[in-house]
Amino acid sequence: MVELSVLQQRFGIELVESTFRDNRRIDVPAAKLFDLLSCLKSDHGFNTLIDMTAVDYLEYEGATDRFGVVYMLLDVFGGERVIVRTAVNLPDPKLPSVYSLWRGADWMEREVFDMFGIVFDGHPDLRRILMPEEFAAFPLRKDYPLKGRGERHNFPVITRAGS
Amino acid sequence: MAVGLPENVFMTKLDAAASWARSNSLWPMPFATACCGIELMATAASRHDLARFGAEVMRFSPRQCDLLIVAGRVVMKMLPVLQRIWLQMPEPKWCISMGACACSGGVFDTYAVVQGVDRFIPVDMYVPGCPPRPEQLLAAVIDMQAKVRRTGTVMGKEFMARDTPMGPEPFESEERYRIQDANLVQLGGFSAAMTSAGMKRGAGNHG
Ligand code: SF4
Predict the structure, then answer these.
(1) Is B106 in the pocket of ligand 1 (CB under 6 A)?
(2) B101 lines ligand 1 (CB under 6 A)
(3) Nearest by CB to B83, which of A92, A151, A158?
(4) What's the pLDDT tens digit per position in B28-72?
(5) What are the phi and psi torsion angles at A26 (to 5°)?
(6) Which residues is B96 bridged to in the sheet?
(7) Which pairs from B181-184 meet CB under 8 Å and 24+ separation?
(8) ipTM associated with this complex
(9) Model-level pTM?
(10) Closest Cα to atom 8 of ligand 1
C-alpha cells in the first residue's frame, strides 16, 4: 500500500487523504497532478487507468472549486486501488494530459473535454467524441439546460414532395 | 361493353394493379437504433412472422427498400444519417415511425434527442408504445398496405400533394425561454454559444 507520507515527502506538499467505503482518495493541486500520477505509475505500480471523469460542483454545498477531475487507478498485480482528485476552475479549465502515461486516457480525456470543456494539454487529438463536431456548448455543465438550447432542432426539414 | 370477357380475365385500373403489387411486397429498411429494434426483430421472427404480409425481406441497403421503419430514438448525430437514408430510398417509399421515441422523443426530452422524427422526415404511420408489441407493428404494416391500396398511384402522384412539413413546429416557444435563461447564467471560458447580451448580464449577476 502506498504511504501518504512517502508521497508528501517526495512532493513537499500537503496531500489530503480520505476514505469512503474502501475507496481511498487523494486530493492534489492541479499543478502537481502530473508528477503525482507519473510517480504513482512508475514507483508504485499503478499500471492501469481504470476510469477518469469530472464533476461540476456549481451550486454544490460547501464546494470551493468549479470542477473536480477524478482519476481511478489500479495496480493490476497488487490489486491496490487509489482515486486521485484535482480541481480546476473557470475561465480556463486546463490540465496536463496523462495520455503519455496511460494510452487509455485518450478517449476518456476526449469525453471529459466534450462534456465539461476541460482542456487537456498535450493530448494528441482533442476533439469531441460524443457530440457532433459543430456542437457549441458543454452539456454536462450544470449551467447548461437539460433540454439544450435548440441544437436538437437545427436540421433541414424534408417534406414528402421534396424527397 | 359489347365484347364479353373470356374466362380468367378481369379488368382493373393500372393504379390499383400497381398498388396491389406494391402493398404485398413492402421491403422494410430496419432503422433500429434502440430497444424498439429488438421488438422489430421479434416481429420478423418465426412466432409473429412478418412474412405472412409479404414484408419479411429486410434490406440493409436503402437502395433496395421501400418501407423505412424507424425503431428507436434518434439523436442529433444520427438524424443526418436518417435523412440521408430516406433520400437514398427509391420511389415509391413509405415510413413507419415505431415507438414513443421515434414518434415524439418519448421520455428522452434531453438536449441530444430529436423530439420525433416527423419533424424532419415525412412519416406515414405512427406506432405508439414503449416498445410496441409485435402485433402492433403487424397492425401498422397491415394498415400501411391498406393505405397503399387506397391511395397509391402508379406514378406516385399522391406524394406530390404532401409538400408541407408534417411534424410539429421544430422550434417551440419554450425553447426560446430556455435559451434566454441559459444566457443569463454566466458561462465564462470559451463557450461559443454565449450571446453578447447574455455575457453583459451574466457578468453583472455573478461579478
Ligand atoms: S419507445 Fe421505448 S422501447 Fe422504443 S426505443 Fe424508446 S425507450 Fe426503447
Answers:
(1) yes
(2) yes
(3) A158
(4) 999 999 999 999 999 999 999 999 998 888 888 999 999 999 999
(5) -120, 125
(6) B69, B125
(7) B181/A145, B182/A143, B182/A144, B182/A145, B182/A149
(8) 0.81
(9) 0.82
(10) B35
Contacts of B78 (CB under 8 A, 6+ apart): B33, B114
CA B130–ligand 1 middle distance (angstroms): 5
- Nearest CA of chain B to the CA of A40: how many Å? 31
Ligand 1 centroid to residue B106 C-alpha, Å: 7
Q: pLDDT for B66-91, tens place per residue?
A: 999 999 999 999 999 999 999 999 98
Whether residue A16 contacts residue A26, with contact meaning beta carbons closer than 8 Å, is answered with yes
Alpha-carbon distances of B163 from A111, B117, B157, B160, rounded to whole Å: 41, 17, 12, 6
Write out chain B residues lying below 8 Å of A143, CB-based.
182, 185-187
The reply to whether ligand 1 has any atom less than 6 angstroms from the CB of B36 is yes
Which of A144, A149, A161 is nearest residue B163 as measured by Cβ atoms?
A: A161
How far apart are alpha carbons A142 and B109 in whole angstroms? 17
Nearest-Cα distance to chain B for A19, in Å, is 33
All cell numbers assigned to B40: 422489430
C-alpha B28 to ligand 1 mean position (Å): 19
- Cα atoms in the 13 Å half-sphere on the side-chain side of A129: 15
DSSP 3-state of B127: strand
Assigned C-alpha cell, A124: 494528441
* Burial of residue B40 (number of CB atoms within 10 Å: 0-12, 13-18, 19+): buried
Residues of chain B contacting residue A91, judged by C-beta atoms under 8 Å apart: 188-190
- The answer to whether the beta carbons of residues B60 and B85 sit under 8 Å apart is no
Rounded distance between C-alpha atoms, residue A46 and residue A121, angstroms: 22
Q: How many CB atoms lie within 10 A of CB B125?
A: 18
